[in-house]
Amino acid sequence: MKHEGEIPRAPRRDRLLREHVHDPYKTRLKLPEPTVCPQCGAVFHEGRWHWAPRPSPAHEERCQACHRIHDRYPAGELTIAGGFVAHHKDEIVQLARHQEAQEKAEHPLHRIIEIEERNGALLVPTTDIHLPRRIGEALRHAYHGALEFHYEEEAYFIRVRWTRDD
């Protein structure tokens, strides 16, 4: 509300602006085309990574997935827990690897870093935020159980937890 004799002020411009998504592994500059990842062989062409024959000549630079794997710095993490896991571990690992293969065929940067057993649960860190959700939904579809998601937007990280106790 304006009062008589009050001097109008300009709007404040000193507010804190947060990045929408902060992914330290996202390429900041456009890569020269074609670029090949020397570790996995993925090819950067037309603005994205593909599985394709290695072009010659090609610039070499590690893709974001290989970089995350090397640094052991996941973008997603799936925890598979509960009594059901102990009796069906091999089936669950096979389902997770199958989902990874399907996703990775279309998106070379979507990979499982490793599958580790910890305190009776399976921990599955991934190089992207989509694969943990896809594996968790496949587990719920195949074996029912409870599925939870926690997405940290500013950190570009997702935690997914699937549990079944029996």
Tell me briefly what this model is.
With 166 residues, this protein is an alpha+beta fold.
Secondary structure blueprint with pairings:
Layout: E1 35-36, E2 43-45, E3 48-50, E4 59-60, H1 64-71, E5 76-81, H2 83-106, E6 116-118, E7 121-126, H3 131-143, E8 146-152, E9 157-163
Parallel strand pairs: 1-4, 5-9
Antiparallel strand pairs: 1-2, 2-3, 5-7, 6-7, 8-9
Helix pairs in contact: 2-3
Question: What would your notes on this structure say?
Answer:
The chain has 166 residues and is of the alpha+beta class. It has a domain at 72-163: 2-Layer Sandwich (Alpha-Beta Plaits), CATH 3.30.70. The protein has helices spanning 64-71, 83-106, 131-143; strands at 35-36, 43-45, 48-50, 59-60, 76-81, 116-118, 121-126, 146-152, 157-163. β8 (146-152) and β9 form a beta hairpin. α2 (83-106) packs across α3. The longest helix has 24 residues, at 83-106. It is flat and about 75 Å long. The termini are far apart. The relative contact order is 0.17.
